[in-house]
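Exercise (ungraded).
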Amino acid sequence: MTELAWISSAISSARPQAMGALLRYFRDLDTAEEAFQDACLRALKNWPQNGPPRDPAAWLIFVGRNSGIDAVRKRAKQAPMPEEDQISDLEDAESDIAERLDGAHYRDDILRLLFICCHPDLPATQQIAVALRIVSGLTVKQIARAFLVGESAMEQRITRAKARIADAGVPFETPGAVERSERLAAVAAMVYLIFNEGYSTNSGEAPARAPLCEEAIRLARLLLRLFQTEPEIMGLTALLLLQHARAPARFDEDGEIVLLEDQDRSMWSRKMIDEGLALVDKALRHRKPGPYQIQAAIAALHARAEKAEDTDWVEIDLLYGLLEQMQPSPVITLNRAVAVSKVRGPEAALAMIEPLEPRLSGYFHFFGLKGGLLMQLDRGEEARVAFDRAIALANTAAEAAHIRMHIDRLMKDGAVRTPAKKAN
Amino acid sequence: MLYAILCYASEDVVSSWNKAQDDEVMANLLNVQDKYAKAGRLGPVARLLPTTAATTLRKVKGEAIVIDGPFAETKEQFLGFYTLECADLDEAVEFARELSEVNPSGGSYEIRPVSVFNPTKVAV
């Protein structure tokens, strides 16, 4: 790794803690960001000469605070603070000070920094964009690329969102236990959103969006380090790892979707699966089930199956049943129906999803599954109708292509009549 | 004498490497080990999953209690180890120095002589 690469990885790993502390200190997002940027610039100048500080976060907090105070004083036309060269040699003193100031607040600082991004007035995409900018430190250009929008549009979106956060007022008092767990839940949901933003994609976009998944995993691990005994955070981290482990097998060479049961399981990341399984095991020992843990447990059952036919669908059906009780949602019932079709057959699954149609009439996966079940029941004509609806609702070209493949098979098997030729 | 070379570094830093950076570091570390492995001096080597995946069993008043995470909260975490047959401490220090040269994580290598060694084989 080059010198610049290790400096930038040291800075990015220290960023949440340093930004969190500076935000608490200055109580203003823009001032905190400026102070942090300034500390980073000084780090780039100082670290190659003096070597890396033992505690980069403490260094950045200390230097950032001075630089922020300096900036505030300059605006007030007062005397400047000493140069950082004069203070940064005192490495031990500096880390002692920063530790004393910030050690106790460390957890709440980072949680607050993440939490302000979850403001309920902000639409999900803005929450994600702001979190990636402020907490992860991705550049506007990187975020714009991941969201597949122009840089100036993204810049505007982030600026607007930040203004909204500033207006809302940041909660600075140390949170009580109930408030802390509410914040944690909101932050966990946002991390999951970041992951899904990167995950729901097609093959062409996958390389641009994969960093979102990696960033979400990094944030989940960060949360877990701060809240080591929270089973739901273990569940969240495990869920992300187990899902992301399958990324290399999700698309074939032509960019077509490969369904879970058809994926080449040797391409799954063993390392991520091992970590995910370890976390699921840890979480379940707490016997405090929650939605992330259950979803992670389902993902774990897929990961543990060496071949698709080894999948424990009975257990998956049970877990989805539990999830349905906790979070009643037609989408969860739809997912459960996949397990039901494996355990009790397509007829039972079809009976389960038919009542969902009014609520899922705009949902691609509903008609994809309905068509698939009808096809298994040799009801070709009805399957064809469902598949046509699915294609009309497809979110990506790969989804549409996948359904078209089913229709082609139906036609080849003679299960449906060839559609009437369109008039030109 | 057999030495254990224990690797400590900040997990925050190591986990912020992207895959390409991590692969590069691992390849360089493997390079260093290769020479020693060929000489028949390198014993078992392990890299551990993050401490967030760890569980600790601790005896409290005679009762075994299972808790989440590593027992100690420290700035640097125990990330993995090497075992190496060395004629003297200098050789062990030299090995650790070579590792540290290609490891940009900062951190440290603790060099500890092994007292009991029982490398039973497992199928991984």
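Further reading is listed at the end of the chapter. For now, observe: The CA atoms of residues 115 and 187 of chain A lie 6 Å apart. Chain A has 20 helices and no strands.
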